[in-house]
Structures are given as structure tokens and as C-alpha cells.
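Deliverable D5.2: sample structural annotation.
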Amino acid sequence: MYRFFVEEDQIGEREIVITGSDVNHIRNVLRMKPGEQMAVSDGKGKDYGCRVREIFRDKVIADILEEKGAEGELPARIYLFQGLPKGDKMELIIQKAVELGVYQVIPVATRRAVVKLDKKKEEAKVRRWNGIAQSAAKQSGRGIIPQVAAVASFKEALAMTEGFDVKVIPFEHASGMEGTRQEFQRIQPGTDAAVFIGPEGGFEDEEIALARSMGVTAISLGKRILRTETAGLMALSVIGYLLETADA
């Protein structure tokens, strides 16, 4: 079933009015007709089962059939602090992280990050990254649109995690998987967890030391050296599996 996101003021007691670029997508790409059903979300965790009533040039009116909590969300909030990678790798990371259930992605300018963005380029990149997050949220049946935040320095990123329940940073010199398993299993429903991923070249020892001094645990992701676009996705996959099978 096709999914669309709307603002709260577009939701009435019995109907939802869809406007903007989604109208063209519904009319001319999907070629939906009155009577067809769709899923609509308010982007904040509430889903609506709807049936298309009327399709106009500038809006689509859909009747609300049911209202329920979003079913596509992990029971914990996972924040991915991603060191800025080269090229268009960030787009892939954001797309797949959203599919895997990430709550927010925070791009981080670390010491070894090759990419340097000025303010104008950063604003354009963040807009594009948020567009990718929205598309991935629609495709994967998310009940929220995970936000891609503005680029933060490493110190700023660490400060953002004050009060988080679990904070981990994969590091190639960390040894053993037992500590990794223990940290991931501490991520329980209702918790906030931070995963820090370095760019190409990883983190410098001074950054790891700073992270540790602020309560972040260095962990291993196995015996292989993972690319920056692989490491975070591996961590999110394992965390998501543990969360969604805990009560199975």
C-alpha cells in the first residue's frame, strides 16, 4: 500500500487533504483512482488507513478508515552520528539507516573527514539528505520521518548524547565481541542510544579518548575492517534484530 506524509493541519476528523508534490505523484505517476486505499502518516508516529475520495489538480481528498499507532518504528530511539564520508556515500547511509529504523542521523565533522562543507553547501546538502530520508521513510513504511540534523563537530556531537542510555563507538583497536553484545543488549524499549561511526580512516586516538571520557564505550564490530558506509548499517541491523526479537 502506498504511503504519504502530511502535516497535522491537513488531518480532519473524517478526511485528510494531501497537497504539494504528492498530488502529482498520486495523479500522474501512480495513477491512483477514487476508491483505492493508501496509508497516511502524520510523521510523528500516528498512521491512518484511508480511501481516496476525490483527486483534483492541486489536492487529493481521502476518507479516514482507521487510525492507529505507527507499526514501523523500533521501540527505542537510535541516533546515528556519522562521520562525513566522501562522495555520495552519505546518501546511501541515510537511505539505508532510515530503512533500518534509525531515529535521527547527525553528520559529524571529525578530524579525518576529508569532506569540508561551507555554510551554503552544508544547507543544500542537509536539505537533500532530508529529502532522501523522507523518501526512504515512505518506502519502508515508517511512521516518522527521521531528521537529518545540521553538521556537528565531534565535541558538539558528544555533548548531544548527554543523558543517553547507551553510547557506543566502533573502533578497530577494540577487542572481543562480548562487550559489543552486552552494550547492544542494554538497548531496551524506551531507551535512547547513540552509535558513532568514523569517516574513511576512522577516528583518531584522541577522539576515542575524548569519547570515552564522556561515557561512550568503544566496541568491536568483528575481525574485519568495515567501510564507513557498512559499519553503521551493520550496527543498526544487529540492534534492530535484538529489539524486534526480544519479545518473540
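Annotation notes: The mean pLDDT is 91. The two ends are 26 Å apart (CA to CA).
The annotation will be released with the project's public dataset once the embargo ends.
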